[in-house]
Every structure is written in C-alpha cells, then in structure tokens.
Design goal:
Strand content: under 5%
Bound molecules: heme C
CATH architecture: Orthogonal Bundle
Radius of gyration: 14 Å
Helix content: 40-55%
CATH topology: Cytochrome Bc1 Complex, Chain D, domain 2
CATH class: Mainly Alpha
Structural class: mainly alpha
Amino acid sequence: MLRIRTVLMLLVVAPTFGAASQQATSSAASDSEAMKTGRRLYEQRCSVCHTIPGPRRYAPILHQELMKGRESAARQYIMNGSRRMPGFKHALQPADVDAMIEYLKTVPKPSDTDGDVLGTDVE
Ligand code: HEC
C-alpha cells in the first residue's frame, strides 16, 4: 500500500523532474534516431521510478555500466518486470526496448551522491 502511494506521488511530481533530467542528459544524446526514441520512451515510461534524484527514488538509476554486457538480461527485465517493477512486454515493441537499452548505454554512471538507492534489492 505504502509503495503504491509512493509511486502515485512520484507520478504527480514526475513532469518537473522529467524536464530536469532531459536537460541533464542532453549532452549525452547522440544523433541516432533510435537513441532519441529510446530516450523519449525512457523518460515517459521509466524515469518516474528510475531517475528521480534523492531518497524518494523507487528504483536504481540506470546507466551505461549497468548495461555493459548485460543487454539481454536488461531486456528480459524490461519485458517481464520483477516483484517491484512492472513488465512492459504488452506496452512496448522489442525495437522500443532495444532503443531504450541503446540510450541507457550512453548514460554516464552517476556520482555517488546521485546514485544512492534506498530499499533496492537488486544484485
Ligand atoms: C514502478 C516503478 C518502475 C518502473 C515504471 C520501471 N522500473 Fe525498472 N526497476 C524498478 C525497480 C524497483 C527495480 C529494482 C529491481 C527490483 O526491485 O526488482 C528495477 C530494475 C530495473 C532493471 C534492472 C537493473 C539491474 O541492475 O540489472 C532494469 C534494466 C530496468 N529496471 C529497466 C526499466 C525500464 C527500461 C523501464 C521503462 C520501460 C523501467 N525499468 C520502468 C522499478 C521500475
């Protein structure tokens, strides 16, 4: 229950943070259309949990070092979800998932203070 409420709260504040993160990541953008699509989709679908800075963030920040050599694991994760993350196999095309992974492979690893994660049980 508490978690659902937190996510709903995040959904309300997300547009503000989405705009901020767009600015922050614009330098990492590439010319490739797929990557632009990936970034847009990521910001729409994922950043509500994965990008919001600070202790209220629900999920780990995703970045290139997490993706390196783990694309297929990441793809499975995005398609099927987990106990705490919804699966997107009905909402996204495989090409969209690939585009998001391509985009994530350009996102620099955050500094320690940006990357602090509360309550994640990943790895
Ligand atoms: C409702 C919140 C939520 C949304 C929306 C969400 N995720 Fe997640 N995601 C999580 C959580 C929480 C984890 C941490 C692992 C766990 O607890 O299962 C996670 C983990 C992951 C991982 C695994 C990270 C690792 O270390 O291997 C990937 C990849 C991922 N998410 C990608 C995405 C992508 C791409 C999207 C958008 C299509 C997305 N997530 C949307 C909550 C979310």
